[in-house]
User: What shape does this take?
Amino acid sequence: MIQILLFAHLKEQVGKSKLTLKEQSVSVAELKKQMMNDFKLQTKDVMVAINEEYATDSDVIHDGDTVAMIPPVSGG
Amino acid sequence: MFDIVTTPISIDDVMNQVMHRNAGAVVTFIGTVREMTGEKQTLFLQYEAYESMAQSMLAKIGKKIRKQWPDTRVAIVHRIGRLEIGDIAVAIAVSSPHRQDAYEANRYAIEQIKKLVPIWKRENWKDGNIWVGNQEETVSLNDAGSVAK
Assistant: This one.
């Protein structure tokens, strides 16, 4: 199982702060596509972190990983 | 000190973290809540964070600074939750033996925070609110979730 954390407007759009995927492994690019299909999320400018490290589209998410969908940040 | 807090920030505390006998310069940056953005009047802000990752990213920025500017000490505190106009959202203190490094390293810290640390602010106005999409505010994340320029 893969845990997906959502923040800011993504969290509001989906209506949840956490999702679980039954997949055992999926690439970041595939996950983004799935999020677009399932929830109509715009993922173009969204960064993805796997276990609190930023990942690229080709990185693979494995069973047990925690993924975060990180929209453009506005801290500071 | 690399913290995400929910209570008002004490600048004294942040500065004390970096002051020591061989620090000849302490540069402190404070990010405060501003009322006007162009024509828009902000009533208050809400900051949200991926707290554990934000905290570790602040620490990573501190580590990078100490590598690039040896002999510096860094402390960064960012507040989340509801903030009123004039409240302190972030404080960054950097000390070094001489001032050039302190200025440069402090600048580097705020620029990295604004690019990479998973913290988001929501501006609340009289007739709506918006999750700010980036710091130039050329990308806005409206309620429909589409990225509008």
In short: Chain B touches chain A at residues 31, 47-50, 52-54, 56, 78, 89-90, 110, 113-122, 131-135, 139, 141-143, 145-147 (CB under 8 Å). DSSP finds three helices and twelve strands in chain B. The first helix of chain B runs from residue 11 to 18. Residues 16 and 88 of chain B are 17 Å apart (CA to CA).
